[in-house]
Amino acid sequence: MINYITVLLVLFPLLGSVIVAFIRGEQAKNIALGFSLIELAMAILAWTKFDYANPDSQFIYNQPWIESLGIHFKVGMDGISFLLVLLTTVLVPLIILSSFRKEFRKPHALYALILFMQTGLVGVFTSLDAFLFYVAWEAALIPIYFISAIWGGEDRIRVTFKFFVYTMFGSLFMLIGIIYLFIQTPGHSFDINQFYQVALDKGTQSWLFWCFFLAFAIKMPIFPFHTWQPDTYTSAPTVGTMLLSGIMLKMGIYGVMRWLLPVLPLGLMQWGQTALILSIIGVVYASIIAFTQKDIKRLIAYSSIAHVGLISAGIFALNVQGMQGAMIQMISHGINVVGLFFVVEIIFDRTKARESYLLGGIASKAPVLAATFLIILLGAVALPLTNGFVGEFLLLNSIYEYGVWYAIVAGLTIIFGAVYMLRMYGNVMFGKEGTASANFTDVIGAEKLVLYAICAMVIFFGFKPQYLLHISEASVNNLLEIIKLKMQ
Amino acid sequence: MTEQLAWLIPVLPLIGFLINGLGYKKNPKGLVGLVGCATVLGSFILSILVFFDIKANGAKTIDLYEWISVGTLKIPFSFLIDQLTSIMLLIITGVGFLIHVYSTGYMHDDEGYGKYFAYLNLFVFFMLLLVLGSNYVIMFIGWEGVGLCSYLLIGFWFKKTEYANAAKKAFVMNRIGDLGFLIGIFMLFSTFGSISYADIFPQAQTASTAVLTTITLLLFVGAMGKSAQLPLYTWLPDAMAGPTPVSALIHAATMVTAGIYMIARSNILYVLSPISMAVVAGIGLATAIFAAVIALTQNDIKKVLAYSTVSQLGYMFLGLGVGAFTGAFFHVMTHAFFKALLFLGAGSVIHAMGGEQDMRQMGGLKKHLPITWFTMLMGTLAIAGIPPFSGFFSKDEILAHAFEVSPTIWAIGVGGALLTAFYMFRMFFLTFNGKFRGTEEQHHHLHESPASMTIPLIVLAVLSVFGGFVGVPEALHGSHLLNEYLSPVFGQSTQILNAAHHGHLSHETEYALMGASVLGVLISIFYAYTVYVRKEVVPAAETAPRSGLEKASYNKFYIDEIYNAVFTRPLDSLSQLFYRILDKSIIDGVVNGFGQLTQWSADKFRRIQTGYIGNYLFMMVVGIILILVFNFLF
Fold first, then answer.
1. Which of A329, B398, B408, B624 could form a disulfide with B319 if both were Cys (CB 3.0 to 4.6 A apart)?
2. Are B12 and B37 in contact (CB under 8 A)?
3. Could you confirm whether the keyword NADP appears in this record (chain B) (predicted)?
4. Of A263, A292, A313, which closes a domain?
5. How far apart are CA B632 and CA B623, in angstroms?
6. Which residue of A has its CA nearest to B574?
């Protein structure tokens, strides 16, 4: 069974999705939660069998799919993949649970789509075949499109349409790149190892770099490809926003690590610095915009652009601190941003307001929310002994090794982050009661459970980051060796 | 024993935090206070044991676990306990304990009692981590941690927006310094390949002076933030928004001493970089005078004390900068005693006055609060530098070293000391002498504080009076115990400094310097006495016209307003500019432009699809011809 664990992890949520789609009424969410918990249990099982020392993919499942085109259903997990699979399998049940108090129209459809999306996400993180990767990449987009378009807020159709077209636009370039590379492979195959064998000249790699980078940069998003993001995050239902920000954007970062850097190292030599600079611009730019956002959901959306920019910059710095920092920060950011959006949802649920000037004085009415919100927020501003610090420290260190001034500019994030986050916290939680928050009640039941789980992870991984760093260590070292070797 | 038990020193307050934090609604007040105080007392007792162990057996390293390990970057969670650390431990836990005890009385009627003690314990925990860490990153944990706790405690009464803002300001301003510290750590790592003290300091002399200067200046940026030096000091005076015992904790035992500790810890790096030493001394001296001038005209009793802290910290940096490491550290210690005493005393006054902090409403409190009065007198004499009170010895040591470097620095330093004596006695006389100026209701309410508050005052008063005797200079036929104890930490630096310049001061010169400064201070006190006791001058009301320097001082040289105009508001405007113009109009405009272009072109291309076979055939023929022509030509 353990040898099939990867393919099970990919397909099991799909099964769940089909079943949940036929369940009418309130039971849908419970069944969906059940499926996501079994999925989590499987991931934990895989963890117990995971070989930390092995840098290559493990639990590989490989079946011919469309043989005439050399397409295989090939999935497997190395340390990098596995960390992201863990993130996905941990967050999906939390995201489902976080929506328990809310009444949705057609709940079965919503929860079926969430599980369907999980298949796409796990597929992206485990695909070892470029075609399969592309299929999973698009498969993840379809459910989130519907989730946002059906259950979203104001202006959802226009915003979601734009998001869809924008990301499709990027993906098509990637498709061109994938097909081009496929033609260049010696054995005409989509297998990732064949892609790694392709040796192209610098000129070709340079334009191919943009084919892939555009798709990934839009997904993350990197400045200036980000303008779909704040609108989409704001108008999507919070479950959707959590899926987008907590997990989906990691597809872009993962894509860079798995498909861009090792396949196109000469393109990277040509454009890596540009990508790094764009990433750092995004860090500062988005932070500054976040200063004066009144809508707290939009504020967190912008903060996410800043955080992702730092991760991306760390990757393009091409050293082990950057890669490992990116890995752990992807996990931490996923956990923290889901927590932050959940808090926004809790507040909105009670007050029907997200504007900070309508809120205020919540801390004295809801001490549990105040405390848990603060802990998550401290993770987001990278206070030492929270999960956010480890990643941010490593990432800034990696950028420092790349160039001192880059690190100083990117380092502004630790000041700016504190400014906009504490400003938001102060406006919402402290001070006088806002007009909307007069009858605020503290969190209960499932809300508490989700918040406690998130806080526990924020603190635990702040104290013991090695649990996560160990998982990806061998694979990251291996990846860097491949890239450096091919760059020479 | 140190190896087995030292980890408990920070863990005990952490346990206290967890108990009071998790159970803050359920725990009865008695238990909360007991847990809060007992954990810190436990740490204090352990610190005493550790002190004697280190004294006998030298420094110890304790490895707990591997925290972060990536490539060659290894950050162990480990402690280094040497002489410097052991003294810091005693100050933090000792003074911290007294503040905890005092708080049981002061905060007794506050609804957030449990939360308060949880934060207080957390504060102590982070400060202990800061001094215990065996590398710069663990120090950084504590460094940022105390920043967090100050945020929580300054904003403790967060229902008032201005208090919450003061808390935010403290955190953000600290973070500005922290960025410098962080970059400094990165540079240390890339220079020395390690972030541990034990690896860095022995190699210090292998690095170039330019690199060391950059590193030390970056670290100093961190110290400026945490220890409230120019230009990053403005958070500290605002920090008095928190409960008064918190001010005592921040100003005396924890937080602000972190910057001094960091430089003292890195002494060898600083000694090897004369430019950094000069910068530290210069900033320190400038801050000492600047803050003292502001303190002259403040009417809020806590504000006077706050600015006096900024000023005294300036002296400590001056000491570090002129190579008086022991002296600076000595002043950390004595200052911890008398500043804790003064703040707690002020708290006692405020408590009696029913929350009033304006000294113009006080006066004549001597007979109502005899214990507070007497202990405050001891503290005021100590900070003013009257022999044989503790502040005299430590300040004298710094100034004597300053004289060795330059008599001008000494003269300016003494000038600041005169200002200190004046504003401190101004505060003291306005509070305790003359007639009561408050309301009838306040007058009726006046009472001495309970024993839980006065006993810590008495203990601190004793320390403020006698604490200086651990560092009596040779010139006064004393043996400098502190110097002796700390010599393993500063020994190498002292040697390098001695080799570089100047011999020792002669005893005669030292007597003359002491005499001059003491005489000046006495005159200063006498002047304050004349103005505020004999003539019973009461500072003018808020709205009264002020002129020139007095106006500038009263308004704290408008530094907050300047920062607001130069940083805060432009950044907010930039934020709106980025959001509305760049993001919404330009970048998104381009994106939408692409979309519209597609729609427009689709619209045009659609017209080609007419559905008439003839048209299609025509297009096909044109196409074939074009291909043929293309092939023919190329």
1. B398
2. no
3. yes
4. A263
5. 14
6. A288
Helices and strands, number each (H, E), in chain A: 19, 2
Whether residue B591 and residue A166 make contact (CB cut-off 8 A), yes or no, is yes
A242 and A335 both lie in a single domain: no
DSSP state of B358: B
Claim to verify: residue A181 and residue A312 sit in the same structural domain: no
Contacts of A466 in chain B (CB under 8 A): 66-69
Question: By CA distance, what is A468's nearest residue in B?
Answer: B68
Strand, coil or helix: B454:
helix
pTM of structure:
0.91
Residues A180 and A270 in one domain: no
**B25: closest CA of chain A, how far (Å):** 10
Q: For residue A171, what are its two tokens?
A: 């993906």
Structural domain that includes position A379: 266-488
- Neighboring chain B residues of A162 at a CB cutoff of 8 Å: 591-592, 595
Q: Which of A205, A228, A263 is a domain's end point?
A: A263
Chain B CA closest to residue A480: B71
What part of A 389-428 touches B (C-beta under 8 Å)?
390, 393-394, 396-397, 400-401, 404, 407-408, 411-412, 414-415, 418-419, 422-423, 426
Interface test with A, best of B22, B25, B68 (most A CBs within 10 A): B68
Q: Are B70 and A412 inside 8 Å of each other by CB?
A: no
Query: Which are the contacts of B412, defined by CB distance < 8 A and separation ≥ 6?
Result: B285, B289
Q: Are the C-beta atoms of B525 and B422 separated by less than 8 Å?
A: yes
Is A162–B595 a contact, with Cβ atoms under 8 angstroms apart?
A: yes
Question: Hey, are the CB atoms on B145 and A384 less than 8 Å from each other?
Answer: yes
**Same-domain status, A199 and A280:** no
Shortest distance, CA B595 to any CA of chain A (angstroms): 9
On whether both A204 and A352 belong to a single domain, the answer is no
Structurally, how many domains does chain A consist of? 2
Cα distance from B11 to chain A (closest Cα, Å)?
Answer: 14
Kindly give the confidence (pLDDT) of every residue in chain A, 488 residues in length, as a single tens digit, with 9 standing for 90 and above.
788 999 999 999 999 999 999 988 788 999 999 999 999 999 999 999 999 999 999 999 999 988 888 899 999 999 999 999 999 999 999 999 999 888 888 889 999 999 999 999 999 999 999 999 999 999 999 999 999 999 988 888 888 888 888 888 889 999 999 999 998 888 888 999 889 888 888 889 999 999 999 999 999 999 899 888 999 999 999 999 999 999 999 999 999 999 999 999 999 989 999 999 999 999 999 999 998 888 999 999 999 999 999 999 999 999 999 999 999 999 999 999 999 999 999 999 888 888 888 888 888 888 899 999 999 999 999 999 999 999 999 999 999 999 999 999 999 999 899 889 988 998 888 888 888 888 888 888 889 999 999 999 999 999 999 999 999 999 999 999 999 988 87
CB B296 within 8 A of CB B553: yes
Same domain, residue pair A331 and A225: no
- C-alpha distances in Å from residue B520, one per residue of B315, B447, B466: 17, 36, 23
Residues A253 and A273 in one domain: no
Q: Who among A169, A383, A407 is closest to B148 (CB)? A: A383
DSSP A365-387: T-HHHHHHHHHHHHHHTT-TTSH
Condensed to tens digits (0 to 9), the pLDDT of residues A439-486 reads 888 888 889 999 999 999 999 999 999 999 999 999 999 999 999 988
CB contact under 8 A, B182 and A393: yes
Smallest Cβ–Cβ distance between A397 and the set B73, B176, B178 belongs to B73
| A463, closest residue in chain B (CA to CA) | B67
**For position B188, what pLDDT does the model report?**
94
* Closest among B477, B469, B460 to B393, alpha carbons compared: B469
Work out the mean pLDDT of chain A and round it to a whole number: 92
Angle between helical axes of B325-352 and B301-321 (0-180°, round to 10) = 180
Residue A27 touches chain B, beta carbons under 8 Å: no
